[in-house]
Design brief:
Elements lengths: L1 H16 L3 E3 L1 H11 L1 H23 L3 E19 L5 E21 L4 E14 L5 E15 L6 H67 L5 H36 L6 E3 L12 H11 L1 H23 L3 E14 L10 E11 L7 H67 L5 H36 L1 E2 L4 E2 L9
Parallel strand pairs: 1-6
Antiparallel strand pairs: 2-3, 3-4, 4-5, 5-7, 7-8, 9-10
Helix pairs in contact: 1-4, 2-3, 2-4, 3-4, 4-5, 4-7, 4-9, 6-8, 7-8, 8-9
Amino acid sequence: MKNSIFLLFLIFSVVTFGQTKIITLSDAIEIAKKKSPEYKTLLNTSQASYWRNRNFVAEFLPQFRLIATLPQYSNSIQRITNDEGQDIFVSQNQSRIDGRLAISQQVPFTGGSLSLNSQIQRIDRFGDSESTNYSLTPLSINYYQNSLFYNPFKWDKKIEPLLYEEAKRAFVERMEDISLSSCRLYFGLLKAQVRLKNANTNLSNQDTLLQIAKGRFKIGKIAENDLLQMELSHLNSKNTVSTNTILLKKTSQDLTRFLELKTEFIELEIPEKLTAFTVSVEKAMEEAKNNRKSVIEFRRRRLQAEKRLAEVKGNNRLEISVNANFGLNKQAEEYDLLFQDYDQQQNLSVTLGIPIFDWGVSKSRRKMAEADLGLVETNLEQEQQAFEQEIFLHTLNWSIQRDFLATSEKAKEVARKRYDITKERYILGKITITDLNLAQQEMDKAELEYLNSLENFWTDYYILRKLTLYDFIADKKLENSNLLFE
């Protein structure tokens, strides 16, 4: 029986650790920051934010565009309006070729759009009276503005840079989320490995103690009830080994998939405690306000609400739009005649929209926009308070985590020492199996409590980093590692 137990333990050891990959907590976090599904998703999101900002910047640069119509041939009967205002049908047999070079530029100071155009056209008529005509517009300047009272470019110039800065800070925060997820998965597997190791050790001990109990029962030193209790403990130890083997398999797969490792057989090292350092509430609050994306988000949301109100006010009363054009053009039947004696072309149109009576529609729109702004300001005030409270409470919680860890570590040592003494006393026949089982349970519980305290210690550390975007050990701000944002 003893040989079979040893063989079983050997099989578990080979399966679990025979082809293992040994990694530390820092190794797991570094791997996750390069290969995890969360990182790949974050990278795609960051690319979208980067190109959104590039698109915004490019919209305020001059846009060059060439528009060309290759030969457009038409041979059909068309309805046209003659000089007398009558609709008539004419036969049309012609081809048209034209090309236009346009340069457009947004004008952020006014909210309008300025464009320069140059165009040349050629029309060839076929049939009984063949002819060719040319038209040239060497320069045409056009300015268009939709509203004189609302400038969307002014607001976009304030909001879009905040969105980009928010995205950069969100990247750093999400990277700390990856560290936090790695830490939790790491300790999930670590505790499963410790549980299985303890279960195998306890099963081996139970087997030895069961053989001792059988010998004592034969010579009448213990009652049958004590022997049955030992057999029950032995069976429970077997079940515990099976349960923890399954748990080890699951947690190993979870971490392996997250890190995209090629093997599920991972052996983890118990992380050491961090070097001693203190974090004051004032320092944590200061760094959080300087570094967190939430601070940028608060400003951005308020500006967006103010932009909506400005838009409603600008378009809700007197509406004025302007379209002006100035240029030169020339029409001739010969190409060489296009470049002399240009004619001028000017166009100016001002469109007015004056609400006389709209049953309160304009007023209700303005009041709704004002109410939305007030709601945003109220929500932001509450979120700001929650933001500061979260920093305050977590900083205090972090300050006592080291004490919890030291206490649980001491409790683990005491529980193990007590079990060793209890086991020796049981072998000598001075205590019952109940006392031994209780000491074993307390030892296993103390070791798991220590691992839980160690997990809380490390997870709170990464939560603190995420909440402040600051590395208190290195005493520096967490930098953006995405080269796309540089």
